Every structure is written in C-alpha cells, then in structure tokens.
C-alpha cells in the first residue's frame, strides 16, 4: 500500500456499528476488579511499610504481564472492535440497478420537417427514440425539446409509451421561439440528470448545430445526426458541435445498427447509479481480527492456565 493510499484509507476509517465500542467500558471494569481481587497483598499495604512488604512477599517484585485476565481483556477488546465493523473502503452495491437514466434532446424546427430522411427528419428522430425505448425497456428516460429556447417535456420515467406520445405531439409551430438553443437544451437535460442523482446520459437528435463554446455538459452526450448518412458524416457544423460537447457522433443507418450501438453506450456510460433507497456501502474488515482472536483463545487450552 502506497503512502497516498494509506493516507486515504486512514481518512475514511470508521466503524459501521460504533456503539458496540461502549462494551469496552465494562470489560475494563471487570479486568480492574479481577486484578484487585487477585492481589493478595492489597490488605497488608495499609498496615505494613511498602518497602518492607516487598521483602516479605514471594514474587512481589514481579508480576506476570501475560496473565489470564490480561489475555481475556485483549480478546474481549478485539472481539468488540471486530463486531463494531471497522471499515475504510467502499464497495459497489450488488443490487445497483443496471438501467441508467437518459435524456432525449430533440430539435423541433422547420428544418426537421425536410423529407430527405424519410418520412421527415423529425419523424425519423421519433422512430429512433421509440427503438431506443424498446431496447431500454424499463430504463428511466426523459425528453427535452428545443428550437430558439429549451423546454422540459417529460422528466425521466420508465413509461416509454408516455414519452412516445409526448414526442409524437411535438411540432415546430408549438415552439414559442425559432432558433437553435442546443447549448441551453443540453444544459437543461444535464441539470435534470444531476437533480435525479442517478447519473445517466444525453442523446441529442438534431440536423444542424450552431457554433458553440467548448465545455463538458456534465453528463455523457451522444449527437444523433438527423441527416442522410452521406451528409451526416461530412457535416462540419455537427462535427464541431460534437467536439464542443465532447459528444460521440452517431450517424443513421439503414438497419438498426445505429440504435443498437447507442443503446449499449447508454447502458454503460458513466458510473452505475446507486440502488434505490440505498446509500454508500462500505466493506467490513472486522473478520481480519478473527485469526488474532483464535490465537488468544488457544491459550485457554494450556494446562493450569486458568488456575494460574
């Protein structure tokens, strides 16, 4: 273990059940009473000078440190520490949900009604979203629509039918302002995921993108190009937007290869979300003390040890 790792481990060291440490107090009390009763010279100290008493007693000048009561105290304290659950390392939850949330961000402008990606670019985006929802059945998914301004249509929900219905109702004439507020839409989607506290990814469905300042969105982003395949690969504006967002660019395919690959990305991108209702989990290290306890217990098999 390196120095940095040791320092980090010490900084995180704690007991999972600290109240068990209170049992050390009666252990110390019983140990003290046992030693007091075992001291046969205690009653003579009040009547005889301590210097003279040392010469009148056999073995009075030395006292065994490895005595039964000392060993019993050590075993008791070790057992208490083990039961208290010392820990310094977190472990991932085995019950963490595998389905990571996602936010679909769809551009809703007149250009998305072009028919070069039949039936229209917007309809093709709806189809791709529906295909992704089938592959991610039960995974929380939300929807943001944007044109000149960004709007939260639906927060993450496992109800795919509700999202498809909301996406089907989107039309350019419903948007209050024309334009291309891609950066605002991605920021809104990232904020929704952040408030949810479950991680997740963002998928943008757009046929064009404005010039953007480079910056991380706060969540993994995939940019699905709603253009014919030959144009999607060569569009400089989409390439620049993908670079600014640190996003993976997805180009439409004639088969379902595009959504299959994207579904895999959504299922694995970013850290896994914690299990519902479950917080941090720590690895319990008390079992490492059991060999020491076993060695202390072996002393009781020594003939005459307890009577000593």
TrEMBL record:
Alphabetized InterPro entries for the sequence: UPF0353/GerABKA_families (IPR050768), VWF_A (IPR002035), vWFA_dom_sf (IPR036465)
Biological source species: Ancylobacter oerskovii
Transmembrane segments annotated in the record for this chain: 15-33, 71-88
The protein's name in its UniProt record: VWA domain-containing protein
Gene3D superfamilies: von Willebrand factor, type A domain
Keywords: Membrane, Transmembrane, Transmembrane helix
Segments forming domain VWFA: 103-208
């Amino acid at each position: 273990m390196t120095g940095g790792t040791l320092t980090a481990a010490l900084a995180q060291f704690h007991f999972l059940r600290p109240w068990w440490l209170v049992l050390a107090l009666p252990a110390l009390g019983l140990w003290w009473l046992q030693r007091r009763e075992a001291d046969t010279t205690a009653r003579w100290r009040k009547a005889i000078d301590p210097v003279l008493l040392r010469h009148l007693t056999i073995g009075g000048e030395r006292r065994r440190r490895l005595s039964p009561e000392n060993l019993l105290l050590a075993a008791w304290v070790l057992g208490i520490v083990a039961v208290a659950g010392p820990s310094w390392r977190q472990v991932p939850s085995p019950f963490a949900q595998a389905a990571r949330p996602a936010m679909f961000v769809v551009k809703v402008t007149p250009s998305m009604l072009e028919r070069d990606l039949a039936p229209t670019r917007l309809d093709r985006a709806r189809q791709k979203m529906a295909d992704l929802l089938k592959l991610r059945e039960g995974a929380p998914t939300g929807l943001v629509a944007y044109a000149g301004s960004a709007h939260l249509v639906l927060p993450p929900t496992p109800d795919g039918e509700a999202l498809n219905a909301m996406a089907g109702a989107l039309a350019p004439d419903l948007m209050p302002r024309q334009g291309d507020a891609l950066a605002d839409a991605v920021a809104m989607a990232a904020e929704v995921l952040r408030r949810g506290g479950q991680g997740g990814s963002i998928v943008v469905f757009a046929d064009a993108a404005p010039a953007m300042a480079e910056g991380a969105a706060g969540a993994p982003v995939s940019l699905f190009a709603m253009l014919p395949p030959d144009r999607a690969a060569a569009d400089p504006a989409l390439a620049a937007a993908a670079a600014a967002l640190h996003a993976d660019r997805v180009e439409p395919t004639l088969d379902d290869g595009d959504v299959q690959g994207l579904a895999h990305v959504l299922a694995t991108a970013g850290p896994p979300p914690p299990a519902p209702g479950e917080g941090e989990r720590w690895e319990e290290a008390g079992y490492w003390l059991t060999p020491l306890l076993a060695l202390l217990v072996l002393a009781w098999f020594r003939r005459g040890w307890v009577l000593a």
